[in-house]
Amino acid sequence: MRRVSIQAEDFDVAAELAALEALGGGGVASFTGVVRGEGGLIALELEQYPAMTQAQVERIVEEAWGRWPLLGVSVIHRFGRLEPGARIVFVGTASRHRTAALESCAFLIDWLKSQAPFWKKEYFGDGATAWVEARAEDEARARGWGDVC
Amino acid sequence: MGLTVVYFAWVREGVGRDEEQVERPAAGATVADLIAMLAARGGGYAEALGDPARLRAAIDQHFVPLDTAIGNAREVAIFPPVTGG
Q1: What is the pLDDT of residues B37-69, one digit of tens each?
Q2: Which of A60, A102, B20, B85 is close enough to A113 for a disulfide, judged by CB 3.0 to 4.6 Å?
Q3: Which of B30, B18, B17, B22 is nearest to B69 (CA)?
Q4: Is CATH 1.20.58.480 correct for B3-79?
Q5: In sequence order, what are the residues at sequence separation of 6 or more whose Cβ sits closer than 8 angstroms to the Cβ of residue A102?
Q6: Residues B23-36: pLDDT tens digits?
Q7: Dihedral over alpha carbons B63, B60, A89, A65 (to 10 degrees)
Q8: Is A139 in Cβ contact with B84 (below 8 Å)?
Q9: A115 in contact with B at a CB cutoff of 8 Å?
Protein backbone atom coordinates (compact mmCIF):
# COMPACT_ATOMS: atom_id res chain seq x y z
CA MET A 1 0.00 0.00 0.00
CA ARG A 2 1.42 3.35 -1.01
CA ARG A 3 -0.65 6.41 -0.33
CA VAL A 4 0.30 10.05 -0.97
CA SER A 5 -2.17 12.83 -0.36
CA ILE A 6 -1.51 16.55 -0.71
CA GLN A 7 -4.57 18.22 0.73
CA ALA A 8 -5.98 21.29 2.46
CA GLU A 9 -8.18 19.29 4.83
CA ASP A 10 -7.22 17.79 8.16
CA PHE A 11 -6.74 14.03 8.43
CA ASP A 12 -7.57 11.25 10.88
CA VAL A 13 -4.35 9.84 12.35
CA ALA A 14 -6.14 6.86 13.92
CA ALA A 15 -7.66 5.87 10.57
CA GLU A 16 -4.28 6.15 8.83
CA LEU A 17 -2.60 4.01 11.48
CA ALA A 18 -5.41 1.45 11.37
CA ALA A 19 -4.96 1.06 7.59
CA LEU A 20 -1.23 0.43 8.08
CA GLU A 21 -1.86 -2.00 10.97
CA ALA A 22 -4.35 -3.93 8.82
CA LEU A 23 -1.53 -4.84 6.43
CA GLY A 24 -0.50 -7.44 8.97
CA GLY A 25 3.22 -6.74 9.09
CA GLY A 26 3.23 -6.38 12.83
CA GLY A 27 5.21 -3.11 12.91
CA VAL A 28 3.92 0.41 12.27
CA ALA A 29 5.88 3.64 12.81
CA SER A 30 4.56 7.15 12.34
CA PHE A 31 5.37 10.83 12.63
CA THR A 32 2.84 13.65 12.91
CA GLY A 33 3.92 17.28 12.49
CA VAL A 34 1.84 19.91 14.31
CA VAL A 35 1.95 23.74 14.08
CA ARG A 36 3.74 25.24 17.11
CA GLY A 37 2.25 28.43 18.54
CA GLU A 38 5.53 29.95 19.68
CA GLY A 39 6.53 33.59 19.73
CA GLY A 40 3.07 35.00 19.11
CA LEU A 41 2.50 32.94 15.97
CA ILE A 42 -1.17 32.91 14.99
CA ALA A 43 -0.99 31.00 11.70
CA LEU A 44 1.24 29.28 9.17
CA GLU A 45 0.52 29.51 5.45
CA LEU A 46 1.87 26.55 3.52
CA GLU A 47 2.48 27.29 -0.14
CA GLN A 48 3.21 24.49 -2.61
CA TYR A 49 4.09 23.92 -6.27
CA PRO A 50 0.84 22.23 -7.30
CA ALA A 51 2.14 20.83 -10.60
CA MET A 52 5.08 19.17 -8.85
CA THR A 53 4.18 18.27 -5.27
CA GLN A 54 2.28 15.01 -5.74
CA ALA A 55 4.82 13.56 -8.20
CA GLN A 56 7.79 14.64 -6.09
CA VAL A 57 6.39 13.15 -2.88
CA GLU A 58 5.65 9.94 -4.82
CA ARG A 59 9.31 9.89 -5.91
CA ILE A 60 10.38 10.24 -2.26
CA VAL A 61 8.06 7.37 -1.26
CA GLU A 62 9.41 5.28 -4.15
CA GLU A 63 12.93 5.87 -2.82
CA ALA A 64 11.92 4.64 0.66
CA TRP A 65 10.13 1.66 -0.90
CA GLY A 66 13.35 0.65 -2.63
CA ARG A 67 15.51 1.02 0.48
CA TRP A 68 13.49 -0.83 3.13
CA PRO A 69 11.26 -3.93 3.11
CA LEU A 70 7.97 -2.10 3.55
CA LEU A 71 4.38 -3.28 3.37
CA GLY A 72 2.84 0.16 3.48
CA VAL A 73 3.67 3.87 3.36
CA SER A 74 1.24 6.69 3.94
CA VAL A 75 2.22 10.34 3.50
CA ILE A 76 -0.21 13.20 3.96
CA HIS A 77 0.94 16.82 3.63
CA ARG A 78 -1.41 19.73 4.06
CA PHE A 79 -1.26 23.15 2.40
CA GLY A 80 -3.02 26.43 3.03
CA ARG A 81 -3.52 28.35 6.26
CA LEU A 82 -3.00 26.37 9.47
CA GLU A 83 -3.34 27.55 13.05
CA PRO A 84 -1.33 26.46 16.11
CA GLY A 85 -2.26 22.92 17.09
CA ALA A 86 -3.22 21.96 13.53
CA ARG A 87 -1.66 18.88 11.99
CA ILE A 88 0.62 19.66 9.00
CA VAL A 89 2.08 16.34 7.97
CA PHE A 90 1.71 12.63 8.60
CA VAL A 91 4.16 9.87 7.70
CA GLY A 92 3.32 6.26 8.49
CA THR A 93 5.21 3.12 7.56
CA ALA A 94 4.43 -0.57 8.01
CA SER A 95 6.87 -3.46 7.90
CA ARG A 96 7.57 -6.89 9.34
CA HIS A 97 10.71 -5.33 10.85
CA ARG A 98 10.68 -2.53 13.40
CA THR A 99 14.01 -1.13 12.19
CA ALA A 100 12.67 -0.80 8.65
CA ALA A 101 9.49 0.90 9.86
CA LEU A 102 11.33 3.34 12.16
CA GLU A 103 14.20 4.18 9.80
CA SER A 104 12.02 4.66 6.73
CA CYS A 105 9.71 6.93 8.72
CA ALA A 106 12.67 9.11 9.77
CA PHE A 107 14.00 9.12 6.20
CA LEU A 108 10.64 10.18 4.78
CA ILE A 109 10.16 13.13 7.12
CA ASP A 110 13.77 14.27 6.59
CA TRP A 111 13.35 14.20 2.82
CA LEU A 112 9.91 15.84 2.97
CA LYS A 113 11.53 18.74 4.81
CA SER A 114 14.25 19.33 2.23
CA GLN A 115 12.98 17.68 -0.99
CA ALA A 116 9.28 18.50 -1.26
CA PRO A 117 8.18 21.82 -2.82
CA PHE A 118 6.53 23.52 0.17
CA TRP A 119 7.23 26.91 1.73
CA LYS A 120 6.00 28.14 5.12
CA LYS A 121 5.04 31.73 5.90
CA GLU A 122 4.50 32.73 9.53
CA TYR A 123 1.84 35.21 10.64
CA PHE A 124 2.18 36.82 14.06
CA GLY A 125 -0.35 38.49 16.34
CA ASP A 126 1.26 41.92 15.92
CA GLY A 127 0.77 41.81 12.15
CA ALA A 128 4.33 40.80 11.29
CA THR A 129 5.00 38.05 8.75
CA ALA A 130 8.11 36.03 7.95
CA TRP A 131 9.03 33.27 5.53
CA VAL A 132 10.54 30.32 7.37
CA GLU A 133 14.16 29.84 6.30
CA ALA A 134 15.54 26.43 5.46
CA ARG A 135 17.84 25.18 8.21
CA ALA A 136 21.29 23.91 7.27
CA GLU A 137 20.75 21.20 9.87
CA ASP A 138 17.68 19.89 7.97
CA GLU A 139 19.55 19.86 4.65
CA ALA A 140 22.44 18.02 6.31
CA ARG A 141 20.05 15.43 7.79
CA ALA A 142 18.52 14.83 4.35
CA ARG A 143 21.95 14.48 2.74
CA GLY A 144 22.90 12.05 5.51
CA TRP A 145 20.56 9.52 3.87
CA GLY A 146 22.50 9.76 0.58
CA ASP A 147 21.81 11.32 -2.80
CA VAL A 148 18.57 13.22 -3.04
CA CYS A 149 16.06 12.92 -5.86
CA MET B 1 8.14 28.85 -28.38
CA GLY B 2 8.20 30.85 -25.18
CA LEU B 3 9.17 29.63 -21.75
CA THR B 4 6.93 29.65 -18.68
CA VAL B 5 8.61 30.87 -15.51
CA VAL B 6 6.88 30.27 -12.18
CA TYR B 7 7.79 31.78 -8.81
CA PHE B 8 7.08 30.73 -5.24
CA ALA B 9 7.22 32.14 -1.71
CA TRP B 10 9.21 35.39 -1.24
CA VAL B 11 10.48 35.18 -4.82
CA ARG B 12 6.85 35.33 -6.00
CA GLU B 13 6.15 38.25 -3.66
CA GLY B 14 9.31 40.05 -4.77
CA VAL B 15 8.66 39.84 -8.50
CA GLY B 16 4.97 40.55 -7.95
CA ARG B 17 3.56 37.65 -9.97
CA ASP B 18 3.33 33.90 -9.74
CA GLU B 19 3.87 33.07 -13.40
CA GLU B 20 4.85 34.64 -16.71
CA GLN B 21 5.89 33.82 -20.25
CA VAL B 22 9.37 34.94 -21.27
CA GLU B 23 11.31 34.76 -24.49
CA ARG B 24 13.26 31.52 -24.62
CA PRO B 25 16.93 32.24 -23.71
CA ALA B 26 19.67 31.49 -26.23
CA ALA B 27 20.68 27.87 -26.81
CA GLY B 28 22.86 26.56 -24.01
CA ALA B 29 21.53 29.06 -21.47
CA THR B 30 21.29 27.79 -17.90
CA VAL B 31 18.82 28.53 -15.13
CA ALA B 32 21.46 30.86 -13.66
CA ASP B 33 21.57 32.75 -16.97
CA LEU B 34 17.78 33.09 -16.92
CA ILE B 35 17.89 34.36 -13.32
CA ALA B 36 20.55 36.96 -14.26
CA MET B 37 18.46 38.05 -17.26
CA LEU B 38 15.37 38.50 -15.09
CA ALA B 39 17.28 40.26 -12.29
CA ALA B 40 18.54 42.77 -14.87
CA ARG B 41 14.95 44.06 -15.18
CA GLY B 42 15.61 45.85 -11.88
CA GLY B 43 13.06 46.70 -9.17
CA GLY B 44 11.46 43.73 -7.45
CA TYR B 45 13.17 41.37 -9.87
CA ALA B 46 16.61 42.63 -8.91
CA GLU B 47 15.71 42.39 -5.23
CA ALA B 48 14.27 38.87 -5.39
CA LEU B 49 16.70 37.39 -7.91
CA GLY B 50 19.89 39.36 -7.29
CA ASP B 51 21.49 36.76 -5.03
CA PRO B 52 21.35 33.34 -6.74
CA ALA B 53 22.92 31.67 -3.69
CA ARG B 54 19.54 32.12 -1.96
CA LEU B 55 17.62 30.52 -4.83
CA ARG B 56 16.70 27.01 -5.93
CA ALA B 57 15.07 25.88 -9.16
CA ALA B 58 13.13 23.19 -10.95
CA ILE B 59 12.91 22.41 -14.66
CA ASP B 60 9.65 20.80 -15.77
CA GLN B 61 8.84 19.96 -12.13
CA HIS B 62 12.20 18.36 -11.23
CA PHE B 63 14.70 20.02 -8.89
CA VAL B 64 17.92 20.97 -10.69
CA PRO B 65 21.15 22.82 -9.82
CA LEU B 66 21.20 26.39 -11.15
CA ASP B 67 23.92 25.55 -13.67
CA THR B 68 21.56 23.20 -15.54
CA ALA B 69 20.86 24.06 -19.19
CA ILE B 70 17.22 24.97 -19.90
CA GLY B 71 17.21 23.23 -23.29
CA ASN B 72 13.72 22.56 -24.58
CA ALA B 73 12.06 22.75 -21.16
CA ARG B 74 8.54 24.14 -20.97
CA GLU B 75 8.60 25.42 -17.40
CA VAL B 76 11.28 26.77 -15.08
CA ALA B 77 10.43 27.39 -11.42
CA ILE B 78 12.46 29.72 -9.21
CA PHE B 79 12.03 29.70 -5.44
CA PRO B 80 13.80 29.79 -2.05
CA PRO B 81 15.01 26.57 -0.41
CA VAL B 82 11.95 24.51 0.52
CA THR B 83 10.62 24.35 4.08
CA GLY B 84 8.00 21.61 4.15
CA GLY B 85 7.48 18.81 6.63
Answers
A1: 999 999 999 999 999 999 999 999 999 999 999
A2: B85
A3: B30
A4: no
A5: A29, A93
A6: 999 989 999 999 99
A7: -70
A8: no
A9: yes
Interchain pair B82, A114: CB under 8 A: yes
Q: What pLDDT band is residue B79 in, cutting at 50, 70 and 90?
A: very high
Task: With CA atoms as reference, report the closest residue to A46 among A110, A106, A131.
Answer: A131
pLDDT on residue A14 = 98
How far from chain centre, in Å, is Cα A121?
Answer: 17
Q: Nearest-CA neighbor of A115 among A66, A57, A61, A48? A: A57
> Measuring CA to CA, how many Å separate A68 from each of A41, A54, A101, A133, B46?
38, 21, 8, 31, 45
With CB atoms and an 8 Å threshold, state whether A49 touches B77. Answer: yes
B25 touching chain A per CB within 8 A: no
Closest CB to B82 among A109, A116, A149: A116
Residue of B nearest to A52 (CA): B61
* A68 touching chain B per CB within 8 A: no
Instruction: Show residues of chain A in contact with B58, CB under 8 Å.
Output: 49, 52, 117
Tell me, which fold does domain A2-143 have in CATH? Aldehyde Oxidoreductase; domain 3 (3.90.1170)
- Collapsing DSSP states into helix, strand and coil, what is residue A5? strand
Distance from CA of B8 to the nearest CA of A (A): 8
> For chain A, what are the domain ranges?
2-143
**Residue A148 banded pLDDT, cuts 50, 70, 90:** low
